[in-house]
């Protein structure tokens, strides 16, 4: 498992640092990619992150790499985000399950949107409260780590 993470996440991030991307820009790219990548409305994160990358002049490949890696987490967090949104609005909990949602999607995307409209709004509201905090925490944690990694990459290895 660690070898897969290293090959698919760590090595590409280090390659971006070697190409001259600043640690701050890379930390922002990775933070937005992960934070928006868990946005609980399917199909929204890719165009949203493309717009963010272009607007903020961030690294689009880095943002989209983390976005795609966050996809399994996005699916796992849909129902928790719905529950947060329901709690914020005082709405009663809807009976939701991943299998029922997938069955609805199989019947047609538009029909699923109509049936799940309230859940979609509650999930988006839950993310609006939690997502920016996640992005901020990720950025504050990644920026110093990437700055140290960039320094180490620039420093030639010295023999022991």
Share of helical residues: over 70%
Helical stretch count?
8
* Structure classification: mainly alpha
Global Rg: 18 Å
Question: Would you mind describing this structure in some detail?
Answer:
This protein has 160 residues and is mainly alpha-helical. It has one domain (2-154). It is built from 8 helices and no strands. Helix 3 (45-56) runs antiparallel to helix 4 (60-69). The longest helix has 38 residues, at 117-154. The mean pLDDT is 87.
What topology emerges from the helices and strands here?
Elements: H1 2-18, H2 23-37, H3 45-56, H4 60-69, H5 71-89, H6 98-106, H7 109-115, H8 117-154
Structural features:
160 residues, mainly alpha, 8 helices, 0% strand
How would you concisely characterize the structure shown here?
By secondary structure, this protein is mostly helical.
């Amino acid at each position: 498992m660690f070898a897969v993470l290293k090959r698919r996440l760590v090595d590409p991030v280090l390659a971006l640092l070697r190409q001259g991307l600043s640690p701050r820009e890379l930390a922002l790219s990775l933070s937005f990619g992960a934070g928006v990548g868990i946005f609980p409305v399917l199909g929204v994160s890719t165009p949203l992150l493309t717009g963010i990358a272009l607007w903020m002049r961030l690294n689009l490949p880095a943002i989209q790499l983390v976005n795609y890696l966050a996809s399994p987490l996005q699916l796992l967090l849909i129902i928790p985000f719905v529950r947060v949104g329901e709690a914020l609005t005082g709405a009663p909990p809807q009976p939701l399950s991943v299998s029922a949602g997938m069955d609805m999607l199989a019947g047609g995307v538009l029909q699923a949107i109509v049936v799940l409209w309230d859940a979609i709004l509650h999930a988006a509201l839950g993310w609006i409260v939690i997502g920016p905090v996640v992005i901020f925490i990720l950025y504050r944690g990644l920026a110093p780590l990437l700055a140290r990694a960039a320094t180490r990459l620039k420093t030639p290895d010295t023999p022991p």
